[in-house]
Amino acid sequence: MECPFCAETIKDEAIVCKHCSRDLRVVRPVIHEVQEIVAEMDRLRRELGRINARLERIKYPVHYFVAHTIGYVLVPIVLLLAAHILVTIVFDANPLYLRLASVIIPVPFGLVLYARQNAGFRGAILLGALIAILAVISMLTVTGFNDNVPIVPGPWIEWREVIEYSASITLALVTGNIIGFLILDVLPKTMAQGGKPNALAYSIARLLGQHVGEEQLRRRARIIQDLLVTVGPVAGVAATAAGSVYAGLKGVFGW
Ligand SMILES: [Zn+2]
User: Which of 8, 40, 183, 222 lies 20 to 30 Å (CA to CA) from residue 74?
Assistant: First the structure.
């Protein structure tokens, strides 16, 4: 933490500032309380945003529906379709670029979906699947008319490509959604944790070795607690992102 008197960085457990020698025992609980209040205010602000969004939906249902359909469904589909037209028709480039587009384009929409709508995992999967299906249908239609071939895929290899492409779009949107959760919810909570680490973190810290001082145990428990709350979502991001990249690039490299 930062010393409230001299603004130098000091240890969280310090009783006296090593730079200005001032007593921190009285100030520290106040600092922690302020940190907790700030975190609580952030939470309330997001809650208020959610309630306002719901109010807007009730007051102007048509406007809300149209705006959200355009923003969350139409725009990503248009972008994906534009990438498809540019890569396969205009430039006749390596399909790898199209697959990369399917991994990159949905991510920001998943992030905004969490930040603005507070939609979680299930909402992201539903929206991702909807975008994927509609985008792939539009692409097949465009290709069908352009190359004068049937719109509906024929052999299994074509179907597989459709499924992989859709999966990579869906997973990319879910990846963006989890990144949003990580940035907006998990990290601020981790950083605001000024007080005592929880009991589980203490137990794990003790398992790692008994013969340390109380302060060191506490510091160790803090690190473990931060790891515990961050590791789940980070693993989620890694898994969905890897899935998206794998499904997206699989066909191109013949894995
Ligand atoms: Zn100081």
Answer: 183
User: How would you class 253 by CB atoms within 10 Å of its CB: exposed for 0-12, middle for 13-18, buried for 19 or more?
Assistant: exposed
Ligand 1: distance of its center to the CA of 186 in Å? 30
What spacing in Å lies between the alpha carbon of 222 and ligand 1's midpoint?
A: 23
Q: Contact, 230 vs 190, CB < 8 A?
A: yes
Ligand 1 centroid to 20 CA: how many Å? 4
Q: Is the dihedral of CA 73, 135, 239, 242 positive or negative?
A: negative
Query: Where does the pLDDT of residue 131 fall: very low under 50, low under 70, confident under 90, or very high at 90 and above?
Result: very high
Q: What is the pTM of this model?
A: 0.69
Cα(28) to centroid of ligand 1, in Å? 12
Alpha helical stretches, state H, the chain: 27-59, 61-69, 75-84, 95-104, 106-117, 121-147, 156-181, 187-192, 199-207, 214-253
pLDDT exceeds cutoff 90 at 65: no
Q: Residue 8 in contact with residue 20, Cβ under 8 Å?
A: yes
- CB atoms inside a 10 Å sphere around CB 87: 19
pLDDT above 70: percentage of residues in the chain: 93
